[in-house]
Amino acid sequence: RAKREGRGRVRFFETEMDQELRDRRLLQHDLRQALEQNQLVVYFQPQARMDGEVIGFEALLRWNHPTRGFVQPDQFIPLAEENGLIIQIGEWVLREACREAASWPRPLQVAVNLSPVQFQAGDLERSIHQILLETGLAPTRLEVEITEGVLIGDFTRALNLLRRLKALGIRIAMDDFGTGYSSLSYLQSFPFDKIKIDRSFIANLEATPQSAEIVRAVLSLAHALNIPVLAEGVETEAQRAFLEREACEEVQGYLVGRPDLIERYLDLIGVAVERRLSA
Ligand code: C2E
Ligand code: MG
Ligand code: MG
Ligand code: MG
Fold it and tell me: Boundaries of each EAL domain copy (predicted)?
């Protein structure tokens, strides 16, 4: 009897896994058409100094699936990395983000996330260079956000690529700082232009005393190394005030603004209301 129960359970588990796998394959199949059928959309989220002055936007990808509605990047970027589609998708995001930023009346920055797969395959340097020429965006206005995943694997190749991007004038930010295994050791390998403290630490600021201490430690370390810090996921004024007291330079999060179509932020990028109406 025990054996039968055990078998029953195993079979149930397998069925669930099969379903999950089938669903992933379906999504992966749909993703191939997403680019051609204009289902991908770039949202923009403001990044601000502590006084509220907006200094740039992060480009965040959205997939408007024909039957599922909006699919979140955490659900489809891993799939795109698995089958290599992220190369094309990543190039598309870069081009959209740079073209958009080049049209802004104010020379604000635009930040774009890069996948480790984009570093391993393809010719990232060439495609970024070409996109900058094509869109006319000044390289100094582009920031690329990488996670430590980029430096795992072919470390030397990734490092050289980062150096060449930096030589073009592009800024390099370390994203999700504090969540990986080796965030600290990567700080000595490359002169990052910005550190983004992961939002999990900010979310726990009030509830968990350890989080506040970790945020303080990251800020003190970054400042000793002369690297400015942006705090991700800032949702409350209490969090912002804490970060300001601790001399954090920049914030991003729902408190400043949610990721949205750029149309929602035209006033911030300097497009006058009259021009919007007449356009
Ligand atoms: P990320 O680069 O760390 O982006 C920040 C994430 O935090 C975004 O999630 C954003 O919507 C969310 N967020 C911002 N402010 C708040 C807040 O105040 N509260 C909360 N709870 N969340 C906040 P999103 O847009 O779902 O993106 C998730 C991740 O997907 C990104 O994390 C990034 O790693 C990846 N991603 C997004 N777009 C791209 C892309 O174009 N290329 C690549 N390779 N990865 C991307
Ligand atoms: Mg990011
Ligand atoms: Mg992040
Ligand atoms: Mg993330």
Answer: 24-273
